[in-house]
C-alpha cells in the first residue's frame, strides 16, 4: 500500500513523502531542506528512490544536493538546468514510471509562479507545489495572469476526487481571504471551522479534494457571479474576462 505523509520543513513548507508500506521504497516531493527528510527516512527505515521537484525556488529544492549525495535517487523536474541531479526535461503531458514504487506520474506544466513550475499527477492525487494551494494560489512571480489561468484550468480538469497536495501550510490565511471574497459561501464557512480546528491541534490541513477546492477556492471560481461582483466592487470597475478577475483577485490578496 502506498502512503503519503507530510514532512514539515523550514517555516511552513511541506516535503511530501510517498512510500510503500511493505517494501519501504519512497519518493520525496520538494525537499527544501535535507535534514527533516533524512530524519523521517531513518525513523521509518525508508529507502528513497526518487525526488520530484515542482519548481526551482530554494524552499522546494535546497535539500536535493545533500539527498542525491546520500541516496541513489532519480530526480524529476522540468528545468534540468535549475535542479541538481535532474536528467530529464519534463514537458507537458510526459509520463514517467517510478519502477520500485510501481507508480506512474504525469507531468502537468503549470507555469506562472515560476516558468518551470510543474505539477505531478497520479490517480487520485496531484502535487501542486506553489501553483494551486488549498484555498488559494501562488504569487505570479515569473508569469502572466493568462498563464496562471491556463495552469489552473488544467488542474480543474482533473477528477473531483483528486487530492491536492500543495507545498505550504497556507490554508487558514487563504480561507480568510476566501471568506472576504465570498462572505455568503457556506462551504467556505464550514471549511474555515474545520481548518481552524485542525490548526488549533497543529495538524496539517493539506491535502484537500479538488471537489472542496472548487467550492471554496476563489482562484478556481473566477466564473462565479458572487466572486466577480466582489472583485468588481473592490476595484470599482467592470472586468471583461475570467483572466482579468483572476489578476484582480491576486492583486487584492497581495494588498492585504
Ligand atoms: Zn515558490
Short description:
The chain is built from nine helices and 14 strands. By secondary structure, the protein is an alpha/beta fold.
Written account of the structure:
The protein contains 9 helices and 14 strands. It is α/β, with parallel strands linked by helices and 256 residues long. The strands form 3 sheets. A 6-stranded mixed beta sheet has the order 1-2-3-4-5-6, with helices on one face. Strands 7-8-9-10-13-14 form a 6-stranded mixed beta sheet. A two-stranded antiparallel ribbon has the order 11-12. Helix 5 runs antiparallel to helix 6 and helix 8 packs across helix 9. The longest helix is centred in the last third of the chain and has 15 residues. It is globular. Zinc ion binds next to loops.
- Poorly predicted regions are none
> Radius of gyration from the CA trace?
18 Å
What is the helix/strand order?
Answer: EEEHEHHEEEEEEEEHEHHEHHH
Strand content: 25-35%
Shape: globular
What's the total count of β strands? Answer: 14
First-last Cα distance: 43 Å
What structural class do you assign from the helix and strand content?
alpha/beta
Helix content: 25-40%
Q: How is the main sheet built? A: 6 strands, mixed
The DSSP helix count reads 9
Oligomer: single chain
Amino acid at each position: 500500500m502506498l502512503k503519503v505523509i507530510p514532512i514539515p520543513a523550514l517555516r511552513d513548507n511541506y516535503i511530501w513523502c510517498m512510500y510503500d508500506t511493505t517494501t519501504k521504497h519512497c519518493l520525496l516531493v520538494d525537499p527544501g531542506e535535507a535534514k527533516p527528510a533524512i530524519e523521517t527516512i531513518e525513523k521509518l527505515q525508508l529507502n528513497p528512490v526518487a525526488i520530484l521537484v515542482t519548481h526551482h525556488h530554494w524552499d522546494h529544492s535546497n535539500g536535493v544536493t545533500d539527498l542525491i549525495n546520500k541516496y541513489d535517487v532519480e530526480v524529476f523536474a522540468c528545468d534540468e538546468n535549475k535542479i541538481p541531479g535532474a536528467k530529464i526535461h519534463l514537458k507537458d503531458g510526459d509520463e514517467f514510471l517510478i519502477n520500485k514504487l510501481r507508480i506512474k506520474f504525469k507531468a502537468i506544466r503549470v507555469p506562472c509562479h515560476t516558468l518551470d513550475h510543474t505539477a505531478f499527477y497520479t490517480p487520485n492525487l496531484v502535487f501542486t507545489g506553489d501553483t494551486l494551494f488549498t484555498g488559494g494560489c501562488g504569487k505570479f512571480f515569473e508569469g502572466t495572469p493568462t498563464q496562471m489561468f491556463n495552469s489552473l484550468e488544467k488542474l480543474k480538469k482533473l477528477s473531483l476526487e483528486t487530492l491536492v497536495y500543495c507545498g505550504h501550510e497556507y490554508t487558514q490565511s487563504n480561507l480568510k481571504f476566501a471568506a472576504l471574497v465570498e462572505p455568503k459561501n457556506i462551504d467556505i464557512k464550514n471549511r474555515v471551522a474545520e481548518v481552524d480546528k485542525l490548526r488549533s491541534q497543529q495538524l496539517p490541513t493539506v491535502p484537500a479534494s479538488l471537489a472542496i477546492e472548487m467550492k471554496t477556492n476563489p482562484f478556481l471560481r473566477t466564473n462565479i457571479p458572487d466572486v466577480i461582483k466582489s472583485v468588481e466592487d473592490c476595484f470599482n470597475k467592470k472586468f471583461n474576462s475570467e483572466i482579468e478577475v483572476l489578476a484582480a483577485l491576486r492583486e487584492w490578496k497581495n494588498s492585504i
